[in-house]
Amino acid sequence: MKYLVTGGAGFIGSNFIRFIFGKYRDAQIVNLDKLTYAGNLANLKDLENHPNYKFIKGDITDPKLMDELVSACDIVVNFAAETHVDRSILGPAEFVQTNIVGTHVLLDAVKKHDKRIHHISTDEVFGSLKLNDNARFNETTPYDPSSPYSASKASSDHLVRAYVRTFRVKATISNCSNNYGPYQFIEKLIPIIILHAVEDKKIPVYGKGENVRDWIQVEDHCHAIDLIISKGKIGETYLVGGNAEESNINIVKMILKQMGKPESLIEFVTDRKGHDLRYAIDSEKIEKELGFSRKYDLATGLKETVDWYLANQGWVEALRNKDYQKYYEQQYKR
Ligand code: NAD
Ligand code: TYD
To answer: What is the number of domains present in the chain?
Structure first.
């Protein structure tokens, strides 16, 4: 199969490319990525000379380039996005451009060339669940996004569905919970905890740290995407969760304990605006219909992630550039 992976130099996209080459010897992959602050070719260093792999620097909002690349593939797997909620609060414009306009450009090319697209989305489109409650998101939950990030992802999902209904475009969507694992950009919660703890720096926990996320190891997410591509029903949406709900404060404590660091490193800071309280996913549909199961439990996944970051300090250092410093100052030193 010829894959056009967009955003393949990011966290999940690079893990997906490695997963596909590990599973399918004859897969052909074109990785199209704009290389924003979050795109990093070092994530794929081990694969850059793979005979069936090609990297192209470009933007999913470029209709001419997307037309050309989509015409040459069998399936588009769309990871390309602006992804960090806090950055979307500081400046939403890029989120609208890439996540909404970019998805539209891809859909037009997919429609024109009668190809298939799998669109990667997030559980954040459903908004917030109550704390201390058993309710979980499923495929019938109404959309109710809170942040500019989740609103832009919600818009992209709606466009995909509209193209399925109106033009019979061959599309599937997955909405996944919070991923963690190797190659996650250093601005997200779990890398922040590990990288601050290793330097005995204070760990910024928003609000009271009571917000709950459903954590999934990135390889399990990649496995789910591969299942949807190979066995999923066209036009359908699949929710993918980690079955591992945990409050932020507990995640911090688990990692500190594993690293042998004191809880006195925890610092409660000003809460995120519009901070969703809780996400939780009911993954019954993908488990029952496609036979999805996970390889990782949270404790094992976190342990391996901590070990990975500690063993890859060079990869981390290269990301601490001017853009990151500027963002960090804006986000944490207000
Ligand atoms: P990431 O920020 O690590 O990577 C995004 C990649 O997209 C980067 O390589 C970036 O350079 C590229 N990109 C951005 N704008 C582009 C453009 N206009 N054209 C081409 N490439 C562009 O993000 P991630 O965590 O790997 O997320 C990938 C996808 O998965 C996103 O669509 C995100 O919404 C979704 N998702 C993420 C999570 C999570 O926990 N990280 C959970 C559910 C869904
Ligand atoms: P994040 O990794 O940004 O993922 P998302 O916002 O997509 O869920 O954040 C995960 C949780 O951790 C979220 O509830 C916000 C919180 N958080 C902190 O408490 N401190 C931080 O420095 C960051 C980045 C996040």
So the answer is: 1
Domain that holds residue 199: 2-331
Alpha helix (H) residue ranges in the chain: 11-23, 63-71, 85-90, 93-95, 103-113, 148-167, 189-198, 218-231, 248-259, 284-290, 298-311, 313-319, 322-332
pTM for the full predicted model: 0.98
Question: What's 63's domain CATH number?
Answer: 3.40.50.720
Residue list, ligand 2 pocket, CB within 6 Å = 85, 178, 188-189, 192, 204-206, 211, 213, 248, 272
Atom 5 of ligand 1: nearest residue by CA position: 10
Per-residue pLDDT of the chain (334 residues; tens, 9 = 90+): 999 999 999 999 999 999 999 999 999 999 999 999 999 999 999 999 999 999 999 999 999 999 999 999 999 999 999 999 999 999 999 999 999 999 999 999 999 999 999 999 999 999 999 999 999 999 999 999 999 999 999 999 999 999 999 999 999 999 999 999 999 999 999 999 999 999 999 999 999 999 999 999 999 999 999 999 999 999 999 999 999 999 999 999 999 999 999 999 999 999 999 999 999 999 999 999 999 999 999 999 999 999 999 999 999 999 999 999 999 999 997 6
